[in-house]
Hints:
2 copies of one chain form a homodimer.
Chain A: H1 3-9, H2 11-24, H3 31-42, H4 48-60, H5 68-88, E1 93-94, E2 97-98, H6 100-103, H7 106-125, H8 130-158, H9 165-190, H10 195-222, H11 234-237, H12 243-251, H13 254-265, H14 271-285, H15 287-307, H16 313-328
Antiparallel strand pairs in A: 1-2
Helix pairs in contact in A: 1-2, 3-7, 4-5, 4-9, 4-16, 5-7, 5-9, 8-9, 9-10, 10-15, 10-16, 12-15, 13-14
Amino acid sequence: MAPEIMKDKFNDFLEPFEKFLQRECAVREPENLYAPVNYVLSLEGKRVRPLLSILTYYLFDDTVEKIYPQAASIEMFHNFTLVHDDIMDQAPLRRGQATVHQKYNLNHAILSGDAMLIMAYRLLTRGLGPETLGRTLQVFTDAALKICEGQQYDMDFERSTGVLQQDYLKMIELKTAVLLGASMAIGGIRAGCSVPMQENLWHCGVAMGLAFQIQDDLLDVFGQKTSTGKQLGGDIIQRKQTIVWLKALELSGPRQEAELRALYNQENIAPDDLVRQVTMIYQSLGVERHCQALKERYVLQGVELIDAIDVDDERKTYLVQLLKFLLNRTS
Amino acid sequence: MAPEIMKDKFNDFLEPFEKFLQRECAVREPENLYAPVNYVLSLEGKRVRPLLSILTYYLFDDTVEKIYPQAASIEMFHNFTLVHDDIMDQAPLRRGQATVHQKYNLNHAILSGDAMLIMAYRLLTRGLGPETLGRTLQVFTDAALKICEGQQYDMDFERSTGVLQQDYLKMIELKTAVLLGASMAIGGIRAGCSVPMQENLWHCGVAMGLAFQIQDDLLDVFGQKTSTGKQLGGDIIQRKQTIVWLKALELSGPRQEAELRALYNQENIAPDDLVRQVTMIYQSLGVERHCQALKERYVLQGVELIDAIDVDDERKTYLVQLLKFLLNRTS
């Protein structure tokens, strides 16, 4: 879903939060440290994670401004990971704009990223009393370290031929899903939820995060081209072993598996040809349907965990809407 | 002072701490993430900062093992800054061994550094009750962000010709001294000190940190060569505008200033010649004596702040010894 549609739907929640975030990342001295922070946060992100925190908090309480510092912390952390991941992936573009290491340079991207991680911790602790501070830190730090582990596995997998579906699912759980889990859990902690409910929210976010990443992998092959977004088939061109690729290997007989592997190993093939041929094999195997089924399993888990939250259904409307949008987007 | 002498003197404090630290950075999965963490922490560091925390804690209480997690956190944080700074400075060696980005690669150095910063936060909060958690986090995060700012100013100054002594002192306060301030303050917080005493400790650490860095700048020019340490005159070869350089500019007449600037601007001069000629001008100006006097001012500030601590002098012996060693080392 494009950011503008998100903004329409959740404007009442997003607009005041966005103002809060802008105040927080106003450029200070030294400018060379803080300008890149401001730049990356001003790129049109969907703000999925802070919105998840806010809408989770809203399940239990109306005064959503109380969760803004923690929601901003999670967005700051997420953007820190983007800045450093883009260096590691040598990515020139992010959300259609130059990445930080491209617009500024490597040193700025490293150091401003570091500052963002520290700023995330500063935001995280703001306004928390002794009853919630320790638990919030524990959930956040646990997620943060797992995300580094996930990024490492992701890089390790690039040089490995024996990646299994279960390895991949573990990797995306670490790299992507736990932050959605933390976003929901921290929303709940701030609202004073019990530990079992915090865990319920965490598992819900993780399940939705897994579904979200599978969706992302599917859209990369079978989605619609967007104006600013990624090229279709980008994962194939980069020879990524996504769930679509791994599911195809599982479903294919020896001949098709050999074809797929030969295509990924071919260095001189034109990118368009590669994408077209791999996608044709995917289609012949019905990979999309199988991946959709896997995604639906996680969505169902998430929905069950939301059903288990003992608040009025009316309170859940926005959260459910957000998840529906995220999991049914076509680009 | 060489690490082995530190170890002799403070062995009773350092040995159990070192064991604690080793347990904390045992290599886990994914190995590619955690092996560099273990590597950098196994390089023979002096452990100045954790020792400062431990000896400050010891002023007030015997059960020094209570401060190990926070002391380890500060050492972990310090080593994180070394890993990322070494990338930014393109440094091949650290403590006579290959830097992380040299031994592994750029991506490992970025990501393992990130993980170390998060691990530092995890250690920092361990064992703290609600009465100390918030304050400890505040002091640590405040210092951490200032250290990033200091590193940015340091890089900015490399491309600036108008650096003043006061700019430089502000920069080293941020980059180096505040972490020594935080080490002492956090030792005090853990021991249950009042806020005024925490501030006293912080200022003491900052003053000592400034003296420590001025000492470092002096040793780079006037020190003794060590077996594993830096080349003498390394700062001159890198055209660094240290306090020695800036003090020389202050003391020099127009002719000497022009000579100094001409030497720093000369690109094709042999490093040995450059060091010899700049050092000769330093000597003719009596720069060493003037920098020593500035250093002594900060030492005196620190000593007065230690005198103001209302505990038996016997309790202060180790802390005073550590500071004496640090501020009188010759290499």
